Amino acid sequence: MEIWLVVFFGLEYIVRLWSAGCRSKYMGLWGRLRFIRKPICIIDLIVVVASMVVLSVGSNGQVFATSAIRGIRFLQILRMLHVDRQGGTWRLLGSVVYIHRQELITTLYIGFLGLIFSSYFVYLAEKDVVSPDGKKHFASYADALWWGVITVTTIGYGDAVPQTWMGKIVASCFSVFAISFFALPAGILGSGFALKVQQKQRQKHFNRQIPAAAMLIQCLWRCYAADKKFHSEATWDIHVQNKDEAQPSSGSTVLPTQLGKLLLSLSSLHHCP
Length: 273
Known about the structure:
The chain contains 9 helices and no strands. It folds into 2 domains: 1-85; 91-203, Helix Hairpins, CATH 1.10.287. Helix 5 (88-99) packs across helix 8 and helix 6 (101-126) packs across helix 7 (141-152). Residues 249-260 and 269-273 have low confidence and may be disordered. The protein is flat. Helix content is 67%, strand content 0%. With 273 residues, the chain is mainly alpha-helical. It is a multi-pass membrane protein. This is IKs producing slow voltage-gated potassium channel subunit alpha KvLQT1.
């Protein structure tokens, strides 16, 4: 299975490199080199080369002895990037974050302030407390900050627990306040994704209606233009001439001559330093 995957990715890379010349900026040798320098192409080349190295060395179901080979084998995980080669997922995420950047910055800023102050108050209340196992769980402010991060993220390892009543009160208030603010970004991003997807669907539906509307307008205009009672100069009637009118008049050559002189003067002005 591994061999078939390497062959597939290798052939796919060669076909993409060959077909890149369809675009004008990738034509020729230098165009192909410009195509190879694209980030996604560099990643694909690394994946193919790493897979070939892994197959050539062989593992026989065992972990490789050298760390270099293990690192090369890790590069095979980059195959997952083929799922979203165009980067649409990251562009969507970036656009949602950019649109709601003000709300995200505000909530994270307030939550970070709550984390800093609450961790400090817990440290003041618990710095001299010794647990039953003879250890100080809040011996430094870094320990209190670690406890605050674990509490905010609702992980709760339980390695550090406030022992005093003051520490428990601060921890309770902090849990209600800070967790609420740190949970807001998830709701903001969720609603932003929903609105963005809805906007894309609406834009796609609107784009499907444009050709139909343009065709309807063109058909209606042709119906009006083909009507004999319609005397607008915007139709082709002004280009239809009778046999008697088709003969060029003496003044008809004046306009081309004057137009030629005008174009000649404009070209001379264009080439003047």
